[in-house]
Design goal:
Helices cover 27% and strands 19% of the residues. It is α/β, with parallel strands linked by helices. The chain has 3 domains: 73 residues, Ubiquitin-like (UB roll) (Roll), CATH 3.10.20; 120 residues, no CATH class; 191 residues, 3-Layer(aba) Sandwich (Rossmann fold), CATH 3.40.50. A hairpin with a 6-residue loop joins strand 8 and strand 9. It binds iron/sulfur cluster (2 copies).
Length: 423
Amino acid sequence: MNNRINLTIDGKTIQTEAGKNLVDVAKENGIYIPTLCYFRELNPLATCRICTVKLNGRHTTGCTIKVADGMDIEVNTPELLDNRKAIIEMLYAEGNHFCPSCEKSGNCDMQNLGYDMGITVTRYPHVFSDKIVDFNPKRMIMESNRCILCKRCVEEVKTKDGKDVFSFVQRGVKTRVHIDYEQEEKLSESEALHAMNLCPVGAILVKGMIHEQPFGERKYDLLGKNILPKVTSVNNNLHKKENEKFIVATTSLAGCFGCHMSLLDIDTDLLDIIEIAEFNKSPLTDIKKFSKRCHIGLIEGGCANSENVHVLEEFRKKCDILVAFGECAIMGGIPAMRNFVPLKECLEEAYLNGVTTEIGAHIIPGHEDIPKLLNNVYPCNEVVKIDYYIPGCPPNAQHIWKVVKSILLGEEFSITHDEFKYD
Ligand code: SF4
Ligand code: SF4
């Protein structure tokens, strides 16, 4: 029986066999539908929703569509692309994803999609979840704060006698994956590695067998090289008199000053910058107070204490354009790792119980001159409006100045793959 059918994807007529999976049909025809939960022989799970497309005008998950004659599928409309980006941003905001220190970095499907979609910041506030990191299984570690509940492990990993190793426990926002310790012990080494590798993120790790490929040999190191630079057009209408220079201010909030070190790494190109700009308040000039309004303010670090908030708000008032540069400014970075521990416990560990605490010391510093610590470390965009983001830890020096110059001069700029990818 002839089961050839015709359908259209993004207006392109495609001939294929009825009943095939849409994600596969699209791929065969050069159209990419991103997925995270969809996995080889497994029945489509439809848990991540990233493959959402429009079928005859209605939203539905692409991985669950078996193609049929006359279907009209939309994949890459601006609305669908933005929906997909929003889903990835939600996953980033909901979990704890510190890619530069993650064992899966470079091999992670979600990280790759983040790069692919040009995500530099999430539009949602970070949750900084505090779920279980379970080291108890004999050979595995389950880092629930990175799990995206895709269900691949639950469906795919079984013992030889057919028992489940992974299962979902609890409900709603508390849902997490639990490992059955007894069944986990029965897995062979290769079966355990298979579990780690099928996880699209770095939630399942096998002790002593953690991804060991060097840079350049990881799953996604070479992919993405062909991603076209994303062009950003800039029209800020910054006003200044002819012959006057642009005024730049910089500050470091809860950061390590690495981003400011990177600013200086520009070396002799700094002379170029000085031709068009002068610095006002900045650790680079040691000018402590704004003496005039600035065209652009560069912010390193997030907000960890009351002084950080005050400085950031002052920058927002005194600068026409605010740029958050570096991961700490964009998502809290390493300082935000304290967000999983109550502030009281952090202080007790630092000043009373820590191994480096001086014997006999029993005071948590507190004085009206010492800025008050906030309960959490906050990304800058959760405190004031931020106009541009420069990702990196730290961002590349040439890239920082390319962006700054383009903003000042109102020119288009593009982010190349190498500048954007820093894991
Ligand atoms: S699991 Fe992936 S996205 Fe999350 S921190 Fe690790 S590399 Fe980054
Ligand atoms: S542990 Fe990994 S494979 Fe299992 S549900 Fe979470 S993200 Fe998916």
